[in-house]
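haha ok so turns out i had the wrong file open the whole time. this is the CORRECT one, sorry everyone. sequence first:
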Amino acid sequence: MEIDPISCFGNNIPFFLLSYSILGAGLKYIDVAFDEKTVNMKVALAISPFIGILWVYTMIINGASAAILSAIILGVLIRGKIDNPAHLLGLFTILFVILISGLKIPLLLLVFLTASAYMDEVGNDIIDRKEINSRFVGVFLKYFFGKRWLLKVAVLYLVLLGLFPMYLLVALIFFDESYLLVEEYGKAKLEVER
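then structure:
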């Protein structure tokens, strides 16, 4: 019996939860290696093509996942945050595989999710630079954009419309939480080195 690697994981919930967690952690590991220099840059360069391949595979096997992960890439790219060799290597891997696979995503859906991802990046940059007051609105905005909730709200909207499965929203939350976990690890290592 032959196993098709594409359809094998197409709706496999544990695969998506694990994959999104690895992607979020891997992406932030690369950031930490090049921005804070608290983890090994050679490891970051070595894992970037594998992160790119996993990213693309997770897109190819599920159309809704393709829309979410494409929006994250485009939001970060438009915001100018693909700024180191490991990110470029991963992006090249992703684009190369997308081109040869002929992956297609509905344009309106891609624009909606990319705008949400982009606004998350803008909001995150603003709260990182500004002193946030202790009033409810300030605390809420710091939490909302600190955890990049706008894209998750957009995906929730699509889930409620019945266009996306709920497990992809959970997977996206896993992506962001693993990303933030590695960010905290990088900050902790920076504090120890000081």
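The CA atoms of residues 94 and 100 lie 10 Å apart.
again sry for the mixup
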